Amino acid sequence: MTEPFLSIRGIRKVYGVVTAVENVTMDIAEGEFMTFLGPSGSGKSTTLYVLAGFQDPTAGDILLKGKSLLSTPSHKRNIGMVFQRYTLFPHLSVGENVAFPLRVRRRPQAEIAERVRAALKLVRLEGYEDRKPALMSGGQQQRVALARALVYNPPVLLMDEPLSALDKKLREEIQFEIRRIHQETGVTILYVTHDQEEALRLSDRIAVFSQGRIDQIGTGPELYADPATRFVAGFIGDSNFIDAEIVSSEGRLAKLALPGGAVIEGVPLHGATATGGRASLLLRPERIDLQPGGNDGVMAGKVRDITFLGNNIHVLVEPDGTAPISVRLPFGHSALAGLAPGAMVSMTFNPADSHAFR
Predict the structure, then answer these.
(1) N or C: lower Cβ tally within 10 Å for the chain?
(2) Residue 249 sits in a domain of what CATH number?
(3) What is the pTM of this model?
(4) If you ran DSSP here, which 8-state letter would residue 336 be given?
């Protein structure tokens, strides 16, 4: 069996009586783009800081090519780091900022000049060598920080919320650049964010953190189509959750009774499969279809609001006995003809496309 390039084994971090990280374990392949995704306080940044050597774990180990990093000080781990705040030296020029890691490593001047030139070309900042950071935009400064982190060819690059200080348009622009740089260099990247769209846009795989633990690791499509927990289901993509009763179950599939009396079969069930009890039914907005009138679907409700979103239309439907349900229909869908707030509609969906969580 091939040894993992980077292995995180049972990392635990405790501050006094607070457990910030509990049993975080994963293997990362060489050249992989792995994102730690989760809300504030979920343990993702703490895990990254343990990797960087900024914090010592209470338990567990970090292995790079089979060798533990824990006894190696942070400045000798040869791991690149990019922070939310650019942490550039304001009194140094762009070229001097990028050259700094090489000077610390006492590389020859000719090598420094060549590597700085190549790093700035990689982030598309050729010709900016003599400019001071204060004279650059936020996006340009983050590119400089990225060039500085890559200039000494680290085997692993850690990025902690690097784009959260940028506006949406600039964030998307730099996301594209990060993806391009990853593809061109093949560097292994571990990236922390609370933005699910950013994680889906950038990552090969995503580790979803919740309350100091990893709920699930997978590709974006895997997490979206087959969430392991209710938290993952609600955190990845837009979601509707409906309270339902478990009528019966067989294997991983359940029969559910919905508000209004409809019964559906073949719903994937997560958690204990015993008959009885309550479940939360996950319905993705784009998996629901609408028909005019309130008699032909699985559930019926009154249209509360209709919002034009360009290539799709958001319809908010309010059934009796449950919370409003979001529905997304493609622009031009037949059900939209003449539809207005106050109208009754029927909702249908394939039970196999939904998920039930105890």
Answers:
(1) N
(2) 2.40.50.140
(3) 0.90
(4) G
